[in-house]
């Protein structure tokens, strides 16, 4: 199975800062606190769009940063929240944390969505810190930083189009000239041992995935040759492109080839005949090809099927073929041919809730002997503290004490006057 990978960076918006402000009203000497809360930072949300088949778009955009919340204002005006960033992904996209490789979301069905990077909450303004003891708090919170991380998107690529035909008719050659795939090409039979997939993007930026399958021969459905193991790949494709060698050089009749392969498909699984087919008459650069094509068309009679004469070798006749394939893809529904195992897999797929937390705080020692504090909860508190206000600083110390940090520092041997660091900030340990 061919898996497309792409690494991207996502960041939820930071929450807006809360405000410290006091009412100024005529005749009232000391108005009450009136600082509004900051708005919530926006989330980065992935949503499944069944119109997408590949991760191609992520090759052009790799950074997704959601808007921050606005800061709170005076007169108790709350900041506006950021507008969520909606990112479309194809069905079947698995989102993993790049660092830990844990699965964040398994996005399967159209319309399914998951928050990939949560925005931070808004910081509270000073009106929210009024207590009977402190009626004029000079204290507010900064916005909570949005979650940021590197993620990996993975998509198992299923072919939209399968190239079928006898060995050596030029299936791999065709794939190699319309996509950037580099399959092995040679003049002996069964060159291709496992399917190769190529992504095709036309000038109007429509994309689809094409697979060259190992050559089929008579009896393939019973396991003769190689192709039978891969017939199941055709079950998943929506359009079958039937490649026929018109040169007649191998001593076979093109029309017989056509019938033989169709019979194999039918015997393997009746429903394969429901797939729309397009015929590619390949090797038209060869001397007898034109004549063989006339005979072939006559034999087809009034069967309603499109025939595209091409030469994969000289790259002629390719564009009309690609557009015809796209048109068919757009009008052909998916064939829900899930096996039991697949169905189980689909119904068992869950959305993983993922929060990076870990321990509230971690104490380590710096080279110079200073104590270093880290950890998700503590760092978040730190980032939400506005150190411009004494009261905020005091509140932060109380919160640290409440988390048991003072106690833990003492146990690690911290003494009066020792240096303690948190992120960019440094203070003295005081008993
Ligand atoms: N003259 C001519 N030769 C071609 C053309 N397309 C492919 N060939 C040749 O046909 C031979 C077989 O090509 P492949 O693309 O490997 O054929 P295949 O159908 O993938 O074969 P298997 O993988 O063995 O099933 C190679 O020698 C190609 O160079 C064409 O349009 N004209
Ligand atoms: Mg091949």
TrEMBL record:
Keywords: Cytoplasm, GTP-binding, Hydrolase, Magnesium, Metal-binding, Nucleotide-binding. It comes from Sporosarcina ureae. Belongs to the TRAFAC class OBG-HflX-like GTPase superfamily. OBG GTPase family. Residues 353-431 form the OCT domain. GTP binds at residues 165-172, 190-194, 212-215, 282-285, 311-313. The gene is obg. Residues 159-330 form the OBG-type G domain. InterPro entries: G_OBG, GTP-bd, GTP-bd_Obg/CgtA, GTP-bd_prot_GTP1/OBG_C_sf, GTP1-OBG_CS, GTP1_OBG_dom, GTP1_OBG_dom_sf, OBG_GTPase. Residues 118-144 are annotated as: Disordered. This is GTPase Obg. An essential GTPase which binds GTP, GDP and possibly (p)ppGpp with moderate affinity, with high nucleotide exchange rates and a fairly low GTP hydrolysis rate. Plays a role in control of the cell cycle, stress response, ribosome biogenesis and in those bacteria that undergo differentiation, in morphogenesis control. It is found in: Cytoplasm. Its cofactor is Mg(2+). Residues 1-158 form the Obg domain. Monomer. Mg(2+) binds at residues 172, 192. SUPFAM superfamilies: Obg GTP-binding protein C-terminal domain, Obg GTP-binding protein N-terminal domain, P-loop containing nucleoside triphosphate hydrolases.
């Amino acid at each position: 199975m061919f898996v497309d990978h792409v690494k991207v960076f996502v960041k939820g918006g930071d929450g807006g800062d809360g405000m410290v402000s006091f009412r100024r009203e005529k005749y009232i000497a000391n108005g009450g606190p009136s600082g509004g809360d900051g708005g919530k930072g926006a989330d980065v949300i992935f949503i499944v769009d069944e119109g997408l088949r590949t991760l191609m778009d992520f090759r052009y955009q790799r950074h997704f940063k959601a808007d921050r919340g606005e800061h709170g204002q005076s007169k108790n005006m709350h900041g506006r929240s950021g507008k969520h960033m909606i990112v479309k992904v194809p069905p079947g996209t698995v989102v993993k944390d790049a660092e830990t490789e844990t699965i964040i979301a398994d996005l399967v069905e159209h319309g399914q969505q998951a928050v990939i990077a949560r925005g931070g909450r808004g910081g509270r303004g000073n009106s929210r810190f009024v207590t009977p003891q402190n009626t004029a708090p000079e204290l507010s919170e900064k916005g909570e930083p949005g979650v940021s991380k590197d993620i990996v998107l993975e998509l198992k690529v299923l072919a939209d189009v399968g190239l079928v035909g006898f060995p050596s008719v030029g299936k791999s050659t065709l794939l190699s000239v319309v996509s950037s795939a580099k399959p092995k090409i040679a003049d002996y039979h069964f060159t291709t041992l496992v399917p190769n997939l190529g992504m095709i993007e036309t000038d109007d930026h429509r994309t689809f995935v094409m697979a060259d399958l190992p050559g089929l021969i008579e009896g393939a459905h019973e396991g003769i040759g190689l192709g039978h193991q891969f017939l199941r790949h055709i079950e998943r494709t929506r359009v079958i492109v039937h490649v026929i060698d018109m040169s007649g050089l191998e001593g076979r009749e093109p029309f017989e080839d056509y019938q033989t392969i169709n019979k194999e498909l039918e015997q393997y699984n009746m429903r394969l005949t429901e797939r729309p087919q397009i015929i590619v008459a390949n090797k038209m650069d060869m001397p007898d090809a034109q004549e063989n094509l006339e005979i072939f068309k006559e034999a087809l009679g009034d069967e309603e099927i499109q025939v595209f004469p091409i030469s994969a070798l000289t790259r002629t006749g390719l564009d009309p073929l690609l557009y015809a394939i796209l048109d068919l893809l757009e009008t052909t529904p998916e064939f829900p041919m899930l096996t039991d195992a697949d169905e189980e897999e689909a119904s068992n797929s869950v959305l993983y809730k993922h929060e990076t937390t870990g321990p509230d705080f971690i104490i380590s020692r710096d080279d110079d002997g200073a104590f270093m504090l880290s950890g998700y909860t503590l760092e978040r508190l730190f980032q939400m503290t506005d150190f411009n206000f004494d009261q905020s600083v005091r509140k932060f110390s109380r919160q640290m004490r409440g988390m048991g940090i003072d106690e833990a520092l003492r146990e690690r041997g911290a003494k009066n006057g020792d240096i303690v660091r948190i992120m960019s900030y440094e203070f003295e340990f005081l008993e």
